[in-house]
Amino acid sequence: MKIPATKQITQKTLIFALTLLVVGLAGATNLMAQNNLDPTFGNGGKVITDFAAAEGAGAVVLQPDGKLIVAGTTIVRYNGNGSLDTSFGNGGRVSTGFFAFAVVLQPDGKIVAAGPSVLARYNADGSLDSTFGNGGKVTVPGGTAFALVLQADGKLVTAGSVNGGSDFALIRYNTNGSLDSTFGNNGRVTTDFNGRFDEAYALVLQADGKLVAAGTNYSDFALARYNSNGTLDMTFGTGGIITTDFGGSDGARDVVIQPDGKIVAAGGSRSDDFEDDSGVFALARYNADGTLDATFGSGGKVTTDVGQPSYAPGLALQADGKIVAAGSSVQLFIRDFALVRYNTNGTLDTTFGAGGIITTDFGGSDGARDVVIQPDGKIVAAGYTANANFSASDFALARYLGDSVVARRTPFDFDGDGKADVSVFRPSDRTWYLNQSTNGLSATQFGLSTDKITPADFDGDGRTDIAVWRETTPTQAYFYILQSATNTFRFEQFGTTGDIPVSADFDGDGKADVAVYRNGASAGAQSFFFYRPSGTPGVDFRTIYWGAAGNKPVVGDYDGDGKADAAVFDPATGIWYVLRSLDNQLYAIQFGSSTDKLVPADYDGDGKTDVAVFRPDDGTWYLNRSRDGFTGAQFGFGTDKPVPADYDGDGRTDIAVFRDGTWYLQRSTQGFTGVTFGNPTDKPVPNAFVP
């Protein structure tokens, strides 16, 4: 599907436009009030970057530090406020020599861009990475590349077409840029949809390692799912492929995977009569087996007219499950950025912009090609602004406020700088020793040697509070909390002897709630979570019936809605059972063994807790990341205490261990370091909630 950039204006269209002119002007003020632009970004929420040549952004990716990598014929890095990052390339820019349709960011900070026939990798400073291909570049053999994904093992996969668009084509590369001979036919896979024009524009990696490619067979949406070795997945659609007809000339341009395994594809649909100016946003949602999801839109499909002709080359999924599509619209002969947000059932989200739609004018002929969601809920769209005949165009970016989100607190951050602090509780002198990353060393005597430490942000000031849980006779128990906001002490009677403290923010008000897990009284008996909601004064406690005797509590925000989910691990089966607060649905996964140490945390920085274990048998961390998929890393000894936390403040939990008074940290951005702090008998604070 190719939707033209310029249009022939007919007499009928002109009369219709003039009829609406008064209505359009009358509503202009209201629409401007609903544009949702973020005033802290660029100039009133917009950024234009002029390269003195025909330019435009094809893809955008968000770095963990909040900077934006935007790629086209030039790769540009922007600071979080929209200014150019002058530490990158030449004043923030790097010329590629090709148009980049896709870009990915490696965990080591390197950047990989894919163009029609080239794959290039750049160091974090913008220089070409000489360890990749030939001087940093690889020629795509016999085809085009429109999409790119990075696997957990560091291998790269492109998707596009061969023979001028006759078939889908996927190519997998090793980390050095050579073809991966274990994938398809010496690194290459082609798929024929029996169409006259089969082309893949989008590619996404599932958590199980399978790949979903989306595009067009000239007339319909076309999707294919591949096993990790490149063979078609026969459990998907018919023989691994599906097509979806919207009634016109249709094509998918982007694709995402929901946490429940459903697949959402977005693109456009236009009349088969290429002489008219039709064209609408088109979305389809599929079940994991490739069938259309009947709970979405009309029979699994949604179309939205945002001003024709239009289509959606960009797609992103919010943490709350809402879907954002980005592209362009035409109103009164003017092409603008267009964003549409949908509820989880495919209806327009009327809390967004004007009835679910936002358009943004950059003063030229404008269009968005890609979109990303920041952890704070803000939405960034990237594309182009051009003159009437497209002889000159510039990069164009816009950032929108999106939904307000509860600020995500960094666990074990005692000074509120967004970084977890190396810290211990010493039972011998009942003292908390904190090596704060900003405020330096401190020592506070608080608690008894027999207390269980329960550090959390109970007062909602963004700083972890020193706290303990104490069992007394005969059966009573108390939380003792030193509140950092006021430096005052409070205590609450909560729980009974034998309970396990699991303090977390169950009600989503930004404050940790006092909470305990109570095991069932006998084998197989019901277990319970009890918490006192800080956001609902006067409510003594609430009960969540979840788990069974012998289960271990593994509380975390697995669905990314800002609320802690009740969750347990069954050592007998190795199954995690999570009750998601977002939709009150069960999520279950078999992951780990009975002797593993359970270390759930957000390792990929998407705002969702990941299922994870540390295996003492071989000192290996196994992570099932909600966004980046499975990975394993050997780090530590079996006798070490795992202390996972975000020590470098990049939004991702780092794997780390405490060994006889020394901390070994494998930080996700800043790399490895060792810190001597504490005694062998101390309790490392980030180990407080490891069962």
How would you portray this structure in words?
This protein is mainly beta. Helix content is 3%, strand content 41%. The protein contains 2 helices and 52 strands. Strands 1-28-27-26 form a 4-stranded antiparallel beta sheet, with no helix packed on it. A hairpin with a 5-residue loop joins strand 18 and strand 19 (263-270). It starts with 10 loop residues before the first helix and ends in a 7-residue tail after the last strand. 47% of the residues are buried. The model is unreliable at 1-34 and 273-277 (pLDDT under 50).
Kindly list the characteristics that best describe this protein.
41% strand; four-stranded antiparallel beta sheet; mainly beta; single chain
Short précis:
The protein is mostly beta strands.
Helix and strand topology:
Blueprint (H helix, E strand, L loop, with lengths): L10 H16 L1 H6 L12 E4 L9 E4 L5 E4 L2 E5 L14 E3 L6 E4 L5 E4 L3 E5 L14 E3 L3 E8 L5 E7 L4 E7 L14 E4 L7 E7 L5 E6 L4 E6 L14 E4 L4 E9 L5 E8 L9 E7 L14 E4 L6 E7 L5 E9 L2 E9 L14 E4 L4 E9 L5 E8 L6 E8 L21 E5 L4 E6 L3 E6 L6 E2 L12 E6 L4 E8 L4 E9 L3 E2 L13 E4 L7 E6 L10 E7 L3 E2 L12 E5 L4 E5 L6 E5 L6 E2 L12 E5 L4 E6 L3 E6 L6 E2 L12 E5 L2 E6 L3 E6 L6 E2 L7
Antiparallel strand pairs: 1-28, 2-3, 3-4, 4-5, 6-7, 7-8, 8-9, 10-11, 11-12, 12-13, 14-15, 15-16, 16-17, 18-19, 19-20, 20-21, 22-23, 23-24, 24-25, 26-27, 27-28, 29-30, 29-52, 30-31, 32-33, 33-34, 34-35, 36-37, 37-38, 38-39, 40-41, 41-42, 42-43, 44-45, 45-46, 46-47, 48-49, 49-50, 50-51
